[in-house]
TrEMBL record:
Keyword Hydrolase applies: no
GO biological process: amino acid transport
Family indicated by similarity: Belongs to the binding-protein-dependent transport system permease family.
Organism of origin: Dermacoccus abyssi
Spans traversing the lipid bilayer: 20-37, 63-90, 102-123, 135-157, 231-253
Protein name, entry field: Amino acid ABC transporter permease
Compartment(s): Cell membrane
Length: 305
């Protein structure tokens, strides 16, 4: 019996084989983790003395918390910059002006193709030719994050617009809107709304990629933690603590994405109920989606009246 479009439901033998393979995989993973743990334990990395520095407020005050602040500063600046970059270049790439669309496409593809770390190193080298300062590392880190993640955001928005029904654009043109105004007032709001969970998930990538600032000596959490571990000689416990903080931050952002997705689903159901029970306006609403373009439905309705 078919369980989906691409494959059939596994039978008893296949399920048994999957369980065996899963069990073997779990055992192999447990064995690898045990070997790693044993080697680190033999070197004394899990003794109480290695974890004692974390009870000292100075460690948190001088290293962990400043590093956390540096990570959040770079992540926040990168998120804002990537969002603005993505929206601008998505609109430019979908522009009817061919030279503008071509130039935006080249920049977006360049931003997606070049590794973030390579951009950071190049920018940091260019900025520090006359002498290195702390602000140079911050600028190089944030700029590289904005270029790469902004290019990804631009592609996400463009793909969201491309997935919308063609009738959306035709409805805008039918009521006298220009192509650019149709894009801004009808297509773009709907695409951003539909892709909001994906866009929020991209924020997790930005937060994690701030750790690459370590290579340009930016004072983020990994860089500060490395300095602390050099002083207290507890590199493994320090990395475990920093990794735990990253996991908690990324989990919080992921929960925001889940809540946003649920909110959009509930909003979509309310819009559908309103369209089905709204009388004459319901037929109009079916032609132009209500989510993200509330003013357009009114315009179409008034034109028909």
């Amino acid at each position: 019996m078919s369980a989906g479009v691409l494959f059939d439901a596994p039978g008893p033998k296949a399920r048994r084989r999957h369980m065996i393979l899963t069990g073997v995989g779990v055992l192999l993973l447990a064995a690898v983790l045990w070997v790693v743990y044993k080697r680190l334990d033999d070197k004394g990395q899990f003794t109480a003395a290695m974890w004692k520095p974390f009870t000292d407020p100075e460690l948190w005050k001088e290293y962990i918390l400043p590093g956390l602040v540096g990570t959040l500063k770079a992540a926040f600046a990168g998120m804002i910059g990537a969002t603005i970059f993505g929206v601008i270049f998505a609109m430019a790439r979908m522009s009817q002006i061919k030279p503008l669309s071509w130039a935006a496409g080249v920049i977006v593809e360049f931003g997606r193709a070049v590794p973030v770390l390579l951009m950071m190193l190049f920018l940091y080298g260019a900025l520090t030719r006359g002498g290195a300062e702390d602000i140079h590392a911050f600028i190089a880190t944030v700029t590289a994050l904005v270029i790469y993640n902004g290019s990804v955001v631009a592609e996400v928005i463009r793909s969201g617009v491309d997935q919308l029904p063609k009738g959306q654009r035709e409805a805008g043109v039918a009521i006298g809107l220009t192509d650019s105004l149709t894009l801004r007032s009808i297509l773009l709001p709907q695409a951003v709304t539909a892709m909001l969970p994906t866009l929020i998930s991209q924020l997790v990538v930005i937060l994690k990629d701030t750790a690459l600032g370590y290579q340009v000596q930016y004072g983020e959490m990994l860089y500060k933690g490395k300095n602390a571990s050099t002083i207290f000689a507890n590199i493994v416990p320090t990395l475990i603590v920093i990794g735990t903080i990253y996991i908690l931050l990324n989990y919080a952002i992921s929960k925001v994405a889940v809540l946003a997705e649920k909110w959009l689903q509930n909003r979509g159901r309310v819009a559908e109920d309103s369209a089905q029970g709204g009388g004459p306006a319901g037929g109009v609403t079916a032609g132009v989606a209500t989510v993200g373009a509330p003013g357009v439905d009114l315009a179409v309705h008034n034109k028909q009246l």
